[in-house]
Design goal:
CATH class of the largest domain: Alpha Beta
CATH superfamily of the largest domain: Aminoglycoside phosphotransferase (APH), C-terminal lobe
CATH architecture of the largest domain: Alpha-Beta Complex
Distance between the termini: 57 Å
Number of domains: 2
Number of helices: 10
Low-confidence stretches: 61-65
Structural class: alpha+beta
Shape: globular
Strand order of the largest sheet: 1-2-3-5-4
Strand content: 15-25%
Helix content: 40-55%
Oligomer: single chain
Length: 327
């Protein structure tokens, strides 16, 4: 559980507070640390989150990707998250809620983050099997987030957000056996990277990284290790793919895209009146299948038997490959 050192650091920040209970929320990917929920009295909130990153000597990966490149990518991801909470998180809006930064420290590669506990703010519901309304809420969050950070700097973050970005995944590309997709992988990446309209993308916007209110449509997001620059379609395609099986991905594709762009238009009208909204929509709608194919490229190289590899994704990839070869 919480070490004496972490307790002392936490209490030094929460002057006058006392710890009632500590709950280990989860261990971090590949044994890189832990997330704790600390219940307190005498503080502004009833509980807070401690994220303690303490890098192990041996880099164990659940799928066997134990390379130095993999390790360095994770190290950078925690540095990025630290920078995100310290510098960018307070700029988020009521329609794109994220935990507030309380305190952080770094000693070498070890990082400590203390942030708001979304449970204490009423975002207590986690979703494993999302309903369509949950997906709609997540899409609206993404649209608000993308609108807020349209054209934003990426200083301290990933230049290209998402954990599957091609430049950081040469091993998975090398393992990819789909020759057609492999041949156009760099073209797909270039289409997304060179899009005129760029924003900050969450980078790991799966449904598991969203917290919902028990009633109503309130939603907030966590886990900003892969936040960085990019086309908003990368987040959207990834979120939809994390929520729906292939038949529903196809069935609701137009409906969900329309909802995203309606939400994006509303958010840009409130936040960025100088942006040509119709041009954003025109470019990004065209890039949606490229964003889908980009993640599919990573997935087929990383875990060829994954459940998300399906006929819908294969059809999208064939369409994208054909378009690229016809250019």
């Amino acid at each position: 559980m919480l070490s004496r050192e972490l307790r002392d650091q936490f209490l030094s920040v929460m002057a006058g507070a006392s710890i009632l209970e500590v709950e280990q929320v989860q261990s971090l990917w590949s044994g890189y640390g832990y997330i704790y929920r600390v219940f307190v009295k005498g503080a502004e909130q009833s509980s807070y989150i401690i994220k303690s990153i303490q890098l192990p000597d041996d880099h164990k990966h659940p799928r066997g990707w134990n390379t130095n490149l993999s390790h360095q990518r994770k190290v950078k991801s925690y540095e990025v998250e630290f920078n995100w909470y310290k510098t960018y998180a307070q700029k988020a809006l009521p329609d794109a809620i994220v935990p507030r930064y309380i305190h952080g420290s770094r000693q070498g590669e070890n990082i400590l983050l203390i942030i708001e506990d979304l449970n204490a703010l009423g975002y207590t519901r986690r979703v494993s099997f999302p309903k369509l309304d949950d997906l709609y809420s997540g899409i609206k969050w993404l649209a608000s987030f993308h609108a807020k950070f349209m054209g934003a700097t990426t200083e301290g973050l990933w230049t290209n957000g998402t954990y599957w970005h091609l430049a950081t995944r040469p091993d998975e590309l090398n393992e990819l056996t789909d020759k057609g997709l492999k041949e156009v992988a760099r073209h797909i990446d270039a289409k997304l990277t060179n899009a005129y309209y760029q924003t900050l993308v969450h980078g790991d916007a799966k449904v598991a990284n969203f917290c919902f209110q028990e009633s109503g449509t309130g939603i907030a997001a966590v886990d900003f290790q892969y936040v960085g620059g990019g086309c908003g379609m990368k987040d959207l395609a990834y979120l939809i793919g994390s929520c729906l099986y292939e038949d529903d991905c196809e069935k609701y594709e137009t409906q969900l895209l329309d909802h995203y762009f309606t939400s994006l238009t509303q958010a840009l009208n409130k936040q960025q009146s100088n942006i040509h909204i119709k041009k954003v929509e025109s470019e990004w709608r065209m890039l949606y299948p490229y964003a889908w194919a980009d993640f599919h490229r990573f997935l087929k190289g990383w875990s060829p038997g994954h459940w998300k590899i399906n006929s819908y994704s294969e059809r999208i990839c064939k369409q994208v490959i054909k378009e690229i070869k016809n250019e």
